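Record pair follows.
FIRST:
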Amino acid sequence: MRYEDQRALLVRELELQGIKDERVLRAFLNTPRELYVPEEHQSLAYHNRALPIAERQTISQPLMVAIMLQTLELTPEDTVLEIGTGSGYETAVLASIVKEVCSVERLENLSLQAQQILKKQGFRNVYFRIGDGALGWEKAFPAYNSFDKIIVSAGARQIPSRLTEQLAEGGRMVIPVGEQQQQKLVLLTKKDGVLSQSDCGLCAFVPLVTST
């Protein structure tokens, strides 16, 4: 079966699993996941499961990515901070929806590979930083002080204060919080400078490694 047909079947599965956001579904339909997984796993690219990538990391399950993006309520005017570039797949889906993506990855090899693929795919609205994701977008170009939306693709033991500080008024952040084996997906919203928190179910991500 052609990758395009497999992609359409995956999007249909996401719809059946409760993903209704048309922008998110369209982005999944137009993003070739096979380009962001190792060659030996490309036959599994459109299975709804996490897959191993370089540096003992993983590319997240498509459904989990879709849940996180739907929870963020993305718009074409948003500037988004992504913590954990990984293979670049989630970055590509995001960049298909929003104005700009600022993506932080602590592993240089992963970031450089993702940058190469994303630039080859024609994305010009993604900026990269190699560093500690828990610090957010510190001292990086463009010099953003806050973001409309923040997505964290690694499990944190606690919510990093540097990230909540970089969330704009009216903004939304999704982050897995908990121990290494299993976390809760948490949604944070900021209104009048006050953070509100709600749980969005269980999840399992690689740990957020930080020097702080």
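SECOND:
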Amino acid sequence: MKFQETRAAVVRTCITLADQGFLAGTGGNVALRADEDHFAVTPSATDYYAMSAADVCVVRFSDKEQVEGEREASVEAGLHAGVLKARPECRASVHTHQPIASAYTLLARPLEVQDSRHRELLGARIPCVGYAPSGTGLLAARVARAIKPDTNAYLMRNHGVICVGKDAEEAMARVAALESECAAFFETRAANESVALDPSVRALVIAALRSAVRDELQETER
């Protein structure tokens, strides 16, 4: 089996993200650059905790042809191919349906990053790409057009997010930073007394959002 270490790294990345609550069931996917001509990507409809390195697919950049893997490649393989080609310095591309950032995509607006530490990781402004069905060339093209060298996370309307990094660890740190930044946005909105929320509901919402921020801080300090 070629690219054994890269394929094993995809599995490890998925498990870490699932343990942190950023991946669940079979939603979301991970791609890692294998060499200049290929990338490894998660298979379609496969539970992360049941996935093996042999299940992970290897796809050619040039024609999106799957050349290895015992299962069919994720429908988002084309999305990852476009991202990794647009950011040749990045080895990792991670797409999640993480709960808070995915909720933010329903607003269909860019996210202005407030925390200076997060700006260093993510960029100053996270664009929101217009809606397109999952796994389509239209979605891949829209994300590819939005790619900028100083922006490391992208919101996809009504869908989820994609983060990049020089390696899996950096991409995962950006996933956590984006979740924390979106949580801070909603916490500010929930704390606004002009927003029509029952006080007990407001308290629960704020507590949950603050917990998400604390979790991200704890992960980065480890």
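COMMENT: The chain is about 45% helix and 15% strand.
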